[in-house]
Amino acid sequence: MPSGNFIALVLSTLAVLIDAGAARDRRPALVSHDDMTYLGAFHVPMAGGRGFSYGGSGLAFNGAKDSLYIVGNVNDLLTAEISIPPVGGTAVVLQPLAGIGAAKLGALGSGQLRIGGNLVYHDRLYTTGFVYYDASASQTQSHLYRSLDLSAPDITGPYRVGKKGAGYYSGYMTEVPPEWRDKLGAPAMTGNCCLSIISRTSYGPSVSAWDPENTGINARILLAYDQDHQTLGSYAESGSHPVFNGTTRITGIFFPAGTASVLFYGSTGVGNYCYGEGAACNDPTNNWKGEHAYPYRAYIWAYDASDLAAVRSGSKRAYEVKPYATWELSEFGTVGADFATGGAAYDPATGRVYLSQIAGDGALPLVHVYQIMSSHAVARQ
Q1: Is residue 2 domain-resident?
Q2: How many angstroms separate the CA atoms of 52 and 375, rounded?
């Protein structure tokens, strides 16, 4: 007959195993395609001049007003604040389109400039900018900040946030949920990818842990694929490679509270990759000579934040991490060939995410609304 000590040992071991199993069950879930419930879309209003036509990038949620900051026409480098109407409605302009200033953005470098993203953090509006075609890969500064009042004149920046070139930092931004800040090392993240010239940036999604209130070099890369480590696929490889090819563009990021999912938003060609004239590459949407992979779809790249935490701890390298899932956003239909997606903004209070589609409503952007059902997200294995 087993001794009392042996029985006690067995019971103690079983209790430990049960506690470990319960702890695994309590681990944050991973968001799947089915956890993003589509609620519909709303319209962006007309505005003076070119207004919001062929704009819609740089979405940022402002919880104080339940509103969005949004960039106007891509060439004007102006940002406005709009209301969030009911699905099917039209937003109202709360603050008209306003610029950062030619001298400020001009300091980023020569050539065509783009606003990469906006982020509301601690009563400031943070903005990134990049040189659209940085052939010399010389851009290093990327970030600025200003008051949430777009009429206020004081603007700080641009300044450099990371040790690598700006092509790794100068685009989308998001807050990190409080429960992940110690693990990832910062309260926010910033990144960019897939720009021309491709060697100056990441060959797929990239992101760095970053403290917005520190204007020094503090961004630490958690995910990136450089020229020597094209983990998601070789650039310009023939065939269909929607996860990454020469037409892939990533323009937004969001990190739903209560989950372990860092979700990148953008567009990619899902057809066969081809470099040449549009007609020769069977691309009816883009006649220019260049990269084609018609048709093009809005797309999500989903990453496990635990993998990013492993990069921060040193147990993984930034180029070793792969998405646990990718999927098309079928509600968008076929999108344009280049930077057809705008920004992503997340409301942690409601679990809603706003994804803008450039020229989704004629020349105006359309804002698609999804509900993140984190309580039903797939359990981590």
Answers
A1: no
A2: 36
